[in-house]
Design goal:
The complex is a heterodimer. Chain A is an all-alpha fold. Helix content of chain A is 73%, strand content 1%. Chain A is built from 20 helices and two strands. In chain A, strand 1 and strand 2 form a beta hairpin. The radius of gyration of chain A is 22 Å and the shape is globular. By secondary structure, chain B is mainly alpha-helical. Chain B has two domains: 61 residues; 74 residues, no CATH class. In chain B, helix 1 runs antiparallel to helix 2 and helix 4 packs antiparallel against helix 5. Chain B starts with a helix and ends in an 11-residue tail after the last helix. The relative contact order of chain B is 0.08. The model of chain B has no long low-confidence stretch (mean pLDDT 87). The chains are: A mainly alpha, B mainly alpha.
Chain lengths: 498, 148
């Protein structure tokens, strides 16, 4: 309890409030720009937070994430182009509302639903994280190994595209993490005589490249499309109490959906918004109104995508397993300051962790207030040509990756990962599992070696403790469901039931 | 290059990488080699599965209509990527203040992103903004080159 209060006191310091407010504002602008993702913005901002106090830095990154979730709806409503993939479902009712001259109302509903979704997920984070953190503290190397295996298989098999490619990307990430000095034997591993590789490949450098360069190259691929006319905001933004009352059930349902979707590694705002929208439609008495400019449709999608933030942070800070690509970068923000992911985040680094949790809660309030003021300004940001943004993103990547270790080789490595990410994107191999693999690689290696030392080399140790056995079983199911075998069993079961 | 060839190339590269790392793991003590060897095997299996999946999908796709994709400007991506590599190679010897505005101006002019005078203004403004943000405000190092 004490740590929770200290975290609260820390977060309300003037400097922390300033970074949360600026992070949220930046998030709203970045989210509003189609072509720029929240993950990329967090990756680019990461080196900026390097010089800050860890608690302030990580709070700024998290509030950017929250702000971007709302920002995505601005262009979804006004331009019919979702600013982030998490706002894809917002287009369905948001754009028709704007066409009917109710753009302000659509944005107001989006803002209010985002606020409620975000607050609910923050409360879930504040209540579940300490409990789960305590449970995680009792975990030994055997359980940690199982958690790492589960994290990589789930994020790999649930990522967009083929599960085979997702898991392959994750395993390659694990392999990259093993480059450098082996902590047990002290021998250099896969360094091929290169001094640079003795320290291993910094996953922060890799993620800046993987999440930013491909995005810049994608902007260059096509000519700037003729910008569609932006619908103007002429009406009042905030919904009335009566309007809010009519959609509160939908907002609450979507918020719960968002928290749970965020909890599962590999699924994020892009899944939650559709899930929330479809469930709202399914439960609604006026199903036919969805898709015609119905405020409840906007509220359902927007509450769900903001609720993902708190949900995704739960496994990130209690177990060290990022729930989404954006939280993987947030974890990178902690590692820049030498804080290793895992159960110790809730004990040794509790001040930073609780400051982060309170910052997420506070960022909702800032998002609401700044949303009311900045939405009109964010509209003008969407008019910046993509081809101007591309070289600017490159400068931020280059300077950002240089500042981390003051090394130009790091910059070349970043560019290498960027080009690799571009090619991976072209053949639909997701990059997020690779980054998660790079984060979990050391944890997997250490916990496996420690467990095998305890068992005199017997692999059965992983099946002897119930927690580990269950987690590994879930991991196995998540892998098997991606194979043709699972489809075959499902078919057989269907046949026998008929 | 068609889709199957691209997937085949990616499978071959990951397969070769896994084999190289597997062979290299024999230089390591057993404790340091066990995990990389296991991972190398998984990569080998998955890269072959990726190719099999692509082949299966290609066969299925051949039966249905071919979908048309919006063309991309490959030359422009290649030239822009070369500009990035050149920028990174020159920033240390020549320095941030010379190479950064040059990269921005040449980049935007090549991409025909905006008018030249606007590109110059954006380049100078953004170079100064980054300098103040990273060096003056955050006290982080940037390569100064000739200006050090």
């Amino acid at each position: 309890m004490n740590e929770i209060m200290i975290g609260l006191l820390n977060v309300v310091s003037p400097f922390n409030l300033l970074v949360i407010a600026s992070g949220t504002g930046l998030g709203i602008f970045v989210g509003a720009m189609p072509g720029l993702s929240a993950t990329m913005a967090i990756a680019l901002l990461l080196p900026v937070t390097f010089g800050m106090d860890p608690a302030a830095g990580i709070s700024m990154l998290a509030s950017l994430y929250m702000g971007a979730m709302y920002g995505g709806s601005i262009s979804a409503i006004l331009l019919r182009t979702p600013g982030t993939p998490a706002a894809a479902a917002t287009v369905l009712d948001g754009y028709p509302m704007a066409q009917q001259g109710r753009a302000g109302k659509a944005l107001g509903v989006s803002l209010t639903a985002s606020l409620i979704g975000g607050v609910i997920s923050s409360i879930a984070l504040l209540t579940i994280a300490p409990v789960l953190g305590k449970v995680a503290l009792s975990f030994g190397p055997v359980e940690l190994f199982a958690i790492a295996v589960l994290g990589i298989t789930i994020i790999g098999s649930l990522s967009s595209g083929s599960p085979i490619k997702g898991i392959l990307s994750g395993v390659v990430g694990l392999m990259i993490a093993l480059v450098g000095m082996d902590p047990i034997s002290g021998t250099p591993r896969f360094t091929f005589g290169q001094m640079y590789l003795f320290n291993g490949i910094s996953f922060i450098i890799a993620l800046i490249g993987l999440f930013s360069i491909p995005q810049a190259l994608r902007l260059v691929e096509k000519d700037d499309a003729v910008k569609k006319a932006v619908s103007s905001i002429k009406d009042k933004m905030l919904p009335t109490f009566k309007e809010l009352k009519s959609m509160i059930v939908t907002i609450l349902r979507s918020s719960v959906i968002g928290v749970f979707t965020g909890l599962i590694p590999g699924t994020g705002g892009d899944t939650a918004c559709w899930f929330g929208y479809n469930e709202a439609k399914r439960f609604s008495k006026e199903k036919e109104k969805f898709g015609t400019g119905y405020p409840e449709g906007v509220a359902a999608a927007e509450a769900a995508n903001n609720a993902v933030v708190g949900g995704a942070l739960i496994p990130t800070i209690t177990l060290g397993i990022p729930g989404s690509s954006a939280t993987a970068v947030l974890l990178g923000g902690l590692m820049v300051h030498g804080i290793m992911p895992g159960p110790t985040l809730m004990t040794e680094h509790s001040l930073i962790t609780y400051t982060l949790i309170w910052a997420v809660l506070l960022s909702n309030v800032f998002m609401f207030l700044e949303g009311l003021v900045l939405t009109r300004a964010a509209v003008s940001v969407t008019k910046i040509p993509n081809l101007v943004l591309a070289p600017i993103i490159i400068i931020l990547c280059v300077i950002g990756s240089f500042t981390i270790n003051n090394s130009i080789i790091d910059v070349f490595v970043m560019v290498f990962f960027g080009i690799l990410g571009y090619f991976m994107d072209k053949i639909n191999i997701p990059t997020a599992p690779m980054v998660v693999g790079m984060i979990l690689g050391m944890m997997l290696d250490n916990s496996m070696n420690q467990s095998l030392l305890m068992s005199d080399g017997s692999w059965m140790i992983f099946l002897r403790t119930p927690v580990s056995a269950i987690l590994l079983l879930i991991a196995l199911i998540s892998v098997l469901q991606a194979t043709p075998l699972f489809g075959f069993i499902k078919k057989r079961l269907k046949k026998t039931t008929i | 290059m068609n889709n199957l060839a691209k997937q085949g190339l990616a499978s071959a590269i990951t397969l070769i990488l896994a084999i190289v790392l597997y062979v290299d793991s024999f230089n390591l003590p057993p404790a340091a080699a066990s995990l990389p060897r296991a991972l190398a095997w998984i990569i080998i299996v998955l890269s072959m599965a990726m190719f099999a999946e692509a082949w299966y999908k290609e066969r299925k796709k051949a039966k249905v209509n071919q979908e048309t994709k919006e063309p991309i400007r490959i030359i422009r991506v290649l030239v822009f990527t070369s500009m990035i590599i050149l920028y990174v190679a020159l920033i240390k010897p020549l320095g941030y203040f010379l190479v950064t505005p040059l990269f921005l101006i040449v980049g935007m002019a090549y991409l025909k992103a905006t008018r030249l005078w606007k590109a110059v203004l954006i380049a100078l403004g953004f170079t100064l903004f980054c300098y103040f943000l990273f060096v003056m405000f955050l006290h982080l190092p940037i390569p100064m080159g000739l200006f050090s």
